[in-house]
Design brief:
two-stranded antiparallel ribbon, globular
């Protein structure tokens, strides 16, 4: 978690418009998300693998789900929507809390919820604090848009929104609302309506924006666990389709993850003669973005 509470940006990030226009050229806005995974220790693994560093890199593909507080329109989504009170420059994706990336962004945050036991060594019920909202660990997200031969790289911190976001003031909920809320702008003309906007409603809106098959994946058997291991096979099954937006089993595992960008790079390789790297850094003290043009 950042030690400096950022000043709320007064206008959209200078890179946002180009970023969105490029993503519209993709069949699916997939990106590679990199996190840091606590290195195994003698107490968490029987492997002979050893490493001189406390963390190891992990990467996987995710799907961009829009910017936080700017839920993409979906005619199939019956969930109640928040009024368009806020906007942000914070990319989102969805995840299953049972996936390792969730405890990773907790374990590598400044608060260091390292109760994951190396993450893979324990089941979801033992992951403690990472079952709720919170996080703040460092991440990097990379998109390659082949049609325009441009790579986008976003570095920052990741915050997790869970069902507890409207149910209590845990340290994790306070962290999310402070850090993410500090980067949310009130839309012009909507001043005074901040109380009409709900974090929980936005979370349910994201759940409604994914397909019934994708919702069903949150009721699949535990990811990464041996197939020979016992689990709740009465309620967790592969290939399920969930239509109920409040299905307790799916919602228990569903999370929205918000990336709070600190650095953004746009690398244009469309013409070798004019290739450039556009580099943006966020200044927490002013709420503004600094810009430099670099050689690729």
């Amino acid at each position: 978690m950042s030690t400096t509470t950022p000043r709320t940006p007064s206008h959209p990030a200078p890179w946002k418009s180009a970023f969105l226009s490029h993503l519209q050229k993709m069949d699916s806005p997939e990106f590679v998300l990199s996190t840091l995974h606590p290195a195994p220790t003698s107490s968490t693994t029987s492997s002979s693998i050893s490493t001189p560093t406390p963390y190891l890199p992990r990467a996987r593909f995710c799907i961009f789900r829009g910017f936080w507080a700017e839920l993409p329109e979906n005619k199939h989504n019956d969930a109640p929507k928040n009024p368009h009170v806020y906007e942000s420059d914070l990319p989102t994706f969805t995840s299953d809390v049972r996936m390792l990336k969730i405890p990773e962004v907790f374990a590598t945050s400044s608060g260091g919820a390292r109760d994951t036991g190396g993450a893979s060594a324990q089941g979801p019920e033992e992951r403690g604090q990472s079952r709720g909202s919170g996080g703040g660990g460092p991440v990097e997200a990379v998109w390659w848009i082949k049609d325009v031969m441009t790579q986008w790289r976003v570095r920052g911190e990741a915050y997790v929104v869970g069902e507890d976001v409207d149910g209590g003031e845990t340290s994790g909920v306070r962290t999310v609302k402070s850090e993410v809320g500090g980067r949310m702008r009130v839309v012009g003309g909507m001043e005074g309506r901040e109380g009409d906007w709900s974090w929980g409603r936005e979370l349910t809106g994201h759940f409604g924006n994914i397909s019934p098959g994708m919702r069903g994946s949150f009721r699949a058997p535990p990811p990464g666990r041996p197939t020979s291991e016992a689990y709740d096979d009465k309620n967790l099954k592969p290939g399920m389709k969930v239509k109920d937006l409040h299905d307790s089993y799916s919602r228990r595992n569903f999370r929205v993850v918000i990336i709070q960008p600190e650095e953004v790079e746009q690398l244009d390789l469309s013409d070798p003669a004019t290739a450039r790297r556009q580099y943006y850094t966020f200044d927490k003290s002013t709420g503004e973005w600094n810009y430099q043009e670099l050689w690729p």
